[in-house]
Amino acid sequence: GLCLALELGPHTYVGEHQLICRKGESANVKRVGLDNRSADQKIMTDVFFGGSDVERVDLSYHESLQHIVKGDVDAVIWNVVAENELTMLGLEATPLTDDPRFLQATEAVVLTRVDDYPMQQLLRAVVDKHALLAHQQRVVSGEQEPSY
Fold this sequence. Notes:
Elements: E1 2-7, E2 18-22, E3 31-34, H1 39-49, E4 55-58, H2 64-70, E5 75-78, H3 83-89, E6 91-95, H4 100-104, E7 109-113, H5 117-126, H6 129-140
Parallel strand pairs: 3-4, 3-5
Antiparallel strand pairs: 1-7, 2-5, 2-6
InterPro entries: YhfZ_C
């Protein structure tokens, strides 16, 4: 099994998941785009639409906005969006907030094997969570270049 060795808090993996659709059409979603290779998109889509009669259409995550614009689908659940790009395309984004799993899905975590006590101890001893999150914030705000 797995052990949650380090939890970095909400919005450390992604900002937030949103329903993206044509402006004014959020109540009329009949076909939702879904990239089945994206586990988080699949989970968030299933949570949001639940048992409703919405057709899921397989598409590439990175082409989803164009599929909405062309009318191939009515909406997608997505977490990376530039507001000005949406406006230019005639789209709108509504944050998903009505289920605790939406917030949980924004958190970065580190998992280890449940019996790997040395690694769990090492992570807790070596990783300065405050410094890590401060570094992440500097990268997100553009103050610092990311390094890989």
